[in-house]
Amino acid sequence: MSLKGAGYIVGAWEHPTRKATDKSVTLLHAECAKGALEDAGLTKDDVDAYYCAGDAPGLGPMSMIDYMGLKVRHMDSTDVGGSSYQVAVGHALQAIQTGRANVALITLAGRPRSEGMATGTAPRAGNPAQAEMQFEYPYGPATANMYALCAQRHMYEYGTTSEQLAWIKVAASHHAQHNPHAMLRDVVTVEDVVNSPMVASPLHRLDCCVISDGGGALIVTRPEIAKSLKRPLVKVIGVGEAAKNQAGGETELTYSAARWSGPPAWEMAGIKPGDIKYASIYDSFTITVLMQLEDLGFCAKGEGGKFVMDGNLISGVGKLPFNTDGGGLCSNHPANRGGITKIIEAVRQLRGEAHKAVQVPNCDLAIAHGTGGSLGTRHVGSTVILERE
Of 48, 147, 160, 217, which has the most beta carbons under 10 Å away? Predict the structure, then answer.
């Protein structure tokens, strides 16, 4: 049974803060929920399903449902890091199609900047329950190290260069200059990126995402409800999710889980990568974007470096505008998991509500892809394809 068109995104809201020293994570979740409901023209009493991930405090959905005064008959707290929110959209479609939900609320929030978290460079905390604990954690890997391994291998296998990776940051900065909430609004050059301090070879400081507070929320409803609201119709036409495991150490570092999450989404949507007008791609690091573009089929494996060069990702210049809010590389990366912001910006583009300087003309098809975990080890990829109806 296909989920194509089973649900519509009728509300999308991103918290404007990038540093919330005066707010709790719980309050940020609630403010995001309020913003998305108002955007949709609904109230909290209309919500009958709630979705969150590991960023939700306390006992996750139990705590947040109580705090926000919701009365729901379905809940889901699947946590797969930065791809949790693409997964949540897919799971919401399933709940709607099977009659378990009519109006689903999905929220994200976090305060890593206020809490002083060294997300990318501090050794990752180990847990004996994690499969890689006994093999990798004794060496104290940091997130940046794990992504740097992927970048090094991609360069070795395919001749990818630091200058090519830098074009991804350049594109993000061209978009971020128009976002008043972006943390980094200065336009940078390829030279600026490759001359910034080295963090984990070959990744420079400007190859890495920002760390911010903030959050966002989405409202997914059944089609009849969506069509009764006075909002542009954004239909979910394709979803896919997949895990890439460590395979007992036989891990190929040059591809991501998007290799498997993309095909079912394309098949469900009935379109191909060349039909997409706008792409929201998870951008924890520049190498993350390059690998996902390849694995989603926008270019052949090993051709990502050439694909992103010369402004090909810049709106109004290139053939595949990406992350027109500045993305995680320039705008925000809340709660160490910015997947929901990818969907929010895709919705803006399809509604024609992006900043006029970066709005893609006649944008009717968009993709939002998230990655949770680390490309250098186990992770989950999740893909959502959206259509303006």
Answer: 217
Tell me the two tokens of residue 336. Answer: 């160490």
CB atoms within 10 A of CB 186: 10
**pLDDT classification of 59: cutoffs 50, 70, 90:** confident
Residue closest to 275 by CA, chosen among 284, 283, 285, 265: 265
Is the link from the previous residue into 202 a cis peptide, with omega within 30 of 0? yes
Q: Could you tell me which residues come within 8 angstroms of residue 165 by beta carbon, excluding any fewer than 6 positions away?
A: 151, 193, 202, 203, 207, 286, 287, 290, 305, 308
What one-letter code names the amino acid at 275?
A: D
Report how far apart the first and last C-alpha atoms of the chain are (Å, whole number).
21
Q: The tokens 């939700």 sit on which residue?
A: 56
pLDDT tens, 196-214?
Answer: 999 999 999 999 999 999 9
User: CA 33, 38, 40, 46 torsion: positive or negative?
Assistant: positive
Partners of residue 370 on adjacent β-strands? 382
Which residues is 368 bridged to in the sheet? 280, 384
pTM equals 0.96
